[in-house]
Amino acid sequence: MFSFKVLKKKNQARAGEIQTPHGIIKTPVFMPVATQSTIKALTFGQLETCSPQIILSNTYHLHLRPGEALIHQAGGLHKWTNYHKPFLTDSGGFQVFSQSRLGKCKINDNGAEFIDNIDGKKYFISPEDSITIQNKLGADIIMAFDHCPDGGANYEATKEAMRRTHLWAERCVSTHQNSTIKPSHQALFPIVQGGIFKDLREESAKFITSLDAPGFAIGGVSVGESRDDIDEIVKFTAPLLPEDKPRYLMGIGTKEDIVKAIEAGIDMFDCVMPTRIARHGAFFDANGDKQLIKSARYQNDFNPLVEGCRCYTCQNHSKAYVRHLFRVHESVAGSLLSMHNLTYLIDLTDKIRDEILQ
User: Same structural domain for residues 167 and 312?
Assistant: First the structure.
């Protein structure tokens, strides 16, 4: 049901294919984030104009609302959303990290206790809980529950988070293997931690890859480190992961980050940033730099956001029109920029893939 093959390499960069129960994913690939089982401000019909291959939903949020039981009753994420391309679910580890930053989460070897921001209730998620929730959600790729330290954490705190991540990874693998909810239809990816410390990254990669999972992720980046630190750690860690398994770098979504990560040998990426900045009026220009549509210089600009862009917005509307929609607070403005930003990153990875293949 799940397999991966590298078709071609250019130095460390790879072009490959991931076979899943819901279709083939051509890598390298950018994954739009559908946190609550939808891309914010977009219908799935609008999303399809961007040509995504796989989307990501979040275990933590779906566990709180509407609950994995309801989604499982509906037939899993694919039937729940009526979207039948591959899904990946994050384990909730990053949300635990976010709660920890706010002082709303307590973490020990058993799991994480946190407070729901909306209703104030206390919840507890263990590694076993995370996998059981994801089994019920039914995504094609599911993630191990990990302890993500702050980017500024010292060596000892980072090492402790790594130790706990390893402990939890073993428990996640065991829970998944013993699940009765068709675990063979889901590929579990454990996560390498270790912060900015190369010896910890090496130790973590050695342990995590010993679990012989179908794929592996690099976590704990874009959580407060400098750009140089992120680049260095990704470049160092990627070659420590198996050549014959997909490599997923969690939480990056700029042109610069994606290009450097692909050069380091990464296959998969995700980030909420492209749609988040779109809802606040920012779009990617032809160079991948962020521009603000509300700028006065676009008032009489009847050209598309980017000349030659295939996205729905650029094919149908001008900068002046989209600027007007933002100025009068029409919600569709965020949708139009979201389609553009997602298309830009999806096409970027497709273009790089073609260059590797050629």
Answer: no
Q: Are residues 318 and 194 in the same domain?
A: no
Structure token digits, residue 169? 């990874």
pLDDT digits (tens, 9 = 90+) for 224-262: 788 899 999 999 999 999 999 999 999 999 999 999 999
Report yes or no on whether pTM surpasses 0.70.
Answer: yes
Range of the domain at 231: 3-271
- Say yes or no to pLDDT of 100 above 80: no
Task: Specify whether 270 is catalytic.
Answer: yes
Residue 106: is its pLDDT beyond 80? yes
**Backbone torsions φ then ψ of 247, nearest 5 degrees:** -115, 125
Q: 3-class secondary structure for 313-332?
A: HHHHCCHHHHHHHHHCCCCH
345 domain residue, yes or no: no
Q: Where are the alpha helices (DSSP H) in the chain?
A: 44-48, 59-64, 68-74, 77-81, 93-101, 127-137, 155-177, 198-209, 227-237, 255-264, 273-279, 312-316, 319-327, 332-357
* Segment 286-329, tens digit of pLDDT: 999 999 999 999 999 999 999 999 999 999 999 999 999 999 99
- Choose the catalytic residue: 90, 129, 140, 146: 90
Amino acid letter for position 86:
P
Residue 346 lies in a domain: no
State the pLDDT confidence band at 52, using cuts at 50, 70 and 90.
Answer: very high
Cβ-Cβ contacts under 8 Å for 226 (sequence gap 6 or more): none
Is the Cα torsion angle 346, 145, 96, 89 positive or negative in sign?
A: positive
Q: Percentages helix, strand, coil for the chain, rounded to the nearest 5?
A: 45, 20, 35
Catalytic residue among 146, 228, 270, 301: 270
Q: How far apart are CA 294 and CA 290, in angstroms?
A: 12
Q: Write down the residue that tokens 């590929």 correspond to.
A: 187
